[in-house]
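Help! Submission page says 'invalid entity' but I think these are all valid:
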Amino acid sequence: MRMTGKERRQQLLDVARALFAEKGYDSASVEEIAHRAGVSKPVVYEHFGGKEGIYAVVVDREMSAMLAGVTQALAEDDAHPRVLLERAACALLDYIDGSTDGFRILVRDSPVATASGTFSSLLNDIATQVEHILGIQFAKRGYDSKLAALYSQSLVGMVALTAQWWLDARKPKKAEVAAHLVNLAWNGLSHLEDKPALRKRR
Amino acid sequence: MRMTGKERRQQLLDVARALFAEKGYDSASVEEIAHRAGVSKPVVYEHFGGKEGIYAVVVDREMSAMLAGVTQALAEDDAHPRVLLERAACALLDYIDGSTDGFRILVRDSPVATASGTFSSLLNDIATQVEHILGIQFAKRGYDSKLAALYSQSLVGMVALTAQWWLDARKPKKAEVAAHLVNLAWNGLSHLEDKPALRKRR
DNA sequence: GTCAGTCCCTACGCTTACGTAAGTTACGGC
DNA sequence: GCCGTAACTTACGTAAGCGTAGGGACTGAC
């Protein structure tokens, strides 16, 4: 039952992540975190200082993991935009598939509830990156680059909500979902392909 | 200070809607609702039975208002799909513009947190309607109609997140946002129009 | 005026859950 | 075999907030 500090800390983080995903920040209690870890409350306080503390660490780790994946996918500046889009969609779905609880937490409200009235900061972070990529392409083609913000929000929203739906449905396979997302974003409803396929694997 | 029952009830609903929008269900307290209305707690309990009661009424009203708008926009079965899309996007933006607090509430988590682990039921209701429309069109064109669910989620997510972004940004005018949304959904990134315009007014 | 009904208040009980204080048990070096 | 340190415990103080009991005040009819 007795663990070393590092082990216990990691275990608490795992337990807390699962509980926050299940109940949300407010409804999860540190007592239950402790209980599920087979330990009493003060242990949690010893390691993380409090409820906000452990939540912050959990969120920070998930943010990093997710952004790392997506950022890397968007990294190659010279790649074709459509390939970038494909890579980003795949990266997001991979993350969700691999860390479902983490994604659920990131999509829920923060404790301070979306600081300053603005929307969930994570999706904004991602949208900002997409906006950058898109802005370059827009400028290259002579579109109004101020509209890049609008279109990036649309794209991120499209992928994010579909991802959440897929989280419960799990019906089409991951790769197929990605292909259809790209299909819609790239071709639009008026040019939908019958059986879309990804251009580039991973 | 003293009001008739109906007046007080309406005032409480207005105050509660604003507060729920600002703080979310958990962080809003009955006491603060009462205080903002210049009244004490038992009045709220007299009218609505409890916190869940008043929240339920607020949400129900907003759901009805929003769905009514969107449903009506999607009603004309014989209209061209693109026109339907335009009408739906406009209806949603109109609702958000006219009842910002209500929309903010609907997008947040429910008290029981999206019962049964599934995603926010409101957006799902809308997506279901879109799915129906889309299914018909898919069948007509020989696409796999099982994919209508996926594409409707994508479309709703696209519009919903963009709407939330616009809620804070307010940068392009409402009609312009709708035009660009339709532009992306309909034409796709590869066929973007430079200066999209809506086909049909209101 | 007085009486009924409506509107509203103060004051309280009770639960939940955060955070803390002080004491207890296992582990490793000497 | 002793002792400090690190891991952990029980037990409590405190605060917030839901819901309720019982009583006060205003209004209008007769």
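Support: the input was valid. A stray whitespace character was the problem, and the output above is from the cleaned input. Residues 1-49 of chain A form a domain with the Arc Repressor Mutant, subunit A fold (CATH 1.10.10.60).
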